[in-house]
Fold each of these.
Amino acid sequence: MNVADTAEKIKSMEIRGAGRIARAAVEALACHAEQVRAADLSGFRKEMHRAADILLATRPTAVSLPNAIHIVMSGVDRAGTLAEAQEAVRTRAAGFAESSKNAVNRIAEIGSRHIPDGATILTHCNSEAALACIIAAHRQGKDIEVFATEVRPRNQGLLTIRTLNDAGIKTNFIVDSAVRSFIGRMDLVVTGADAITVNGAVVNKIGTSQIALAAHEARVNMVVAAETYKFAPRTILGELIEIEERDTAEVLAPEIAESLPHVTVRNPAFDFTPAEYVDLIVTEEGAIPPEMAYIIIREYLGWGISEFHNSSGINNTGED
Ligand code: RI2
C-alpha cells in the first residue's frame, strides 16, 4: 500500500496496534522506494525522508513506529549509492516485518510459561503480543479463562473477544469500570505496550494504569508483552512520550458536546503505568523486570547515550 493510504489508515485506526502500525509503515516505505523515480542518491533520500515524515506524523505514542522507520531510514542514510539505498529499504523493511512476526511468536512461547494451568486472566485493549501469550497457553492444553475489557471509546475489546472466541477460549466481556469488581478473581493481568520508557514505565491503552493499580492492590501480577522495538530510546535523553489526544467525537457526539458549553471532553488514548506496578515485561529476548529497560534499549536496539551525541533526530542520524 502506498504511503498516503497507509498514513490515512493508521490515523483513522483502520490499521492499529503498535506492532501492526510499525509493520505497515515499513511496508509503505518499501512500496514508496519502488515507486520513486529519483535521479540520484540525494533525490532518493529526500523523497524517502518526506515519506518517513508523513508516516511518523500519523500517531505520536507507539514508539514501534519511529523505531521501525529508523531501522529502514538509517540504511538509506548510510548507503553510498542509489542502488545501495534502494536495496537497503527492501532488505530492512522485509527484515523488520519478519523479525517482528518472529518476536511475537517468541513472546508467546515465553509468556505462555507464565500462565499457569487453571488461570483466569484479565486483558485490556487488543494486543497482538498479549493475545499470542494467552492463545499459546490455551494451545498447550492449559485450562484458562479470560476477562476482556470493552475499551472505550474505540471498543478494541470487541476485536479481542472475537479472537479469543475463535481460539475457543472461555471469555468474559466486561465494561472498563468493572475491572476492580473482578480483579480479586484474576490470577494474572496480561497487556501489551505502545512504548516503554528508560525507567520501565509502560505506556499502553488508556485505563491500563487503573487496572495495574487495582491489580497491585489485589496482589495480582501484571505482565506486559512487548517486543524490544516498543522500548523508547529517546527517553534516555529525557524526552517524554507524547500521549495522543484523539478527536473528542470518539467520546461524545458533537451535537451533544456543542449543547454543553461548560463541558470540555478529553480523549487521551494512552496512559503511563509506573514500573513499580509491573511485575514482568516479556520480550522476545526473555522476560525481564521493568527496571532493565535501559539494557534492552542499549543491547537490542543499539542505542546508548553515546549514540545521541552526534544525532539530530531519529530519522536522520545515519546511525543503526
Ligand atoms: P500490539 C494498541 O494501541 C493498544 O494500546 C495495545 O495494547 C498496543 O497497541 C500494543 O499492541 P491502539 O493502536 O503491538 O489500539 O501488542 O491505540 O498488537
Note: The first strand starts at residue 120 and ends at 123.
Amino acid sequence: MLFRQFFEPESSTYTYLLASGRGREALIIDPVKEQAEQYLQAIRELDLRLVRAIDTHTHADHITALGDLREATGCITIMGERSRAECVSQTVRDGEMLEVDGVTLQALYTPGHTDESFSFVLAPARPRAVFTGDVLLIRGSGRTDFQGGDPEQSWQSIVDRLFRLPDETLLYPAHDYRGWTVSSIGEEKAHNPRLAGRTREQYVSLMRELKLPDPKKMDVAVSANLACGRPRLA
Ligand code: FE
C-alpha cells in the first residue's frame, strides 16, 4: 500500500494520496489548490496515474485543487451526493464503494460539520483507516455553526457511525492545528475531550457555545469551491 499525507500550513489541511503500489492508479482526498504542483510531482515520481480526486465536503478555509487536478490529469472528481459544487463529475451515496486499482473506500454520510460531509473508510471489509474530513478531528470535532452544520447531527455521525468502526481503525482528519497527524477510533472514544464521558446534550450545548470567528478565507473559499476551485468573477 502506498500512502502519503501532505500538509498545507496556511489552513493546516491534510491531504491523502493512496494507491496499492507504485505504477498503479491512485486517488487523492481533500487536495488544496496551492499544493497541486506538489501532488503532481509526487504522482509523477511514484509513477502513479491519478484517477479519482475526492473532497469530503465544501471547505470554508481553503480552495480545493479538484478542478486543477482534473485539468492536469483527467481524473474524476468526487463528492457526496448532497454537494452543491459544480465541478463534481461523480457523486457518491451513503454506503457506496469506490474501487481504485486495489484500493477500496466506502462512503459514509457523516453530516454535522456541514450538511453534505462524507467520511471514507479504507478497506471496509476489515476497516484499516477512516478519512473523516472535519466531522471528527483528533481530540476535537469540526465546528457546526455554518454551511448547514448541526451539533445534533455531528454527535450522531461521530457516536452512532464513526465510533462503531473497530477501535483500531486509524483516524485521518482533514485538519490538525496542533501537530497531531493520526489517531484511532479507540483513542478518540477514550480521550476526545468534547466526546469522552459526555452526553449528547452536553456535546450539543458545548458546540453551540463555541462562538468561533469565521475562517480567514471563508468568503472566497466557499464560492470558489462551489465553482471548481476558481474564484468567481461576480
Ligand atoms: Fe471544513
Note: Residues 57, 59-60, 113, 134, 142 surround fe (iii) ion (CB under 6 Å).
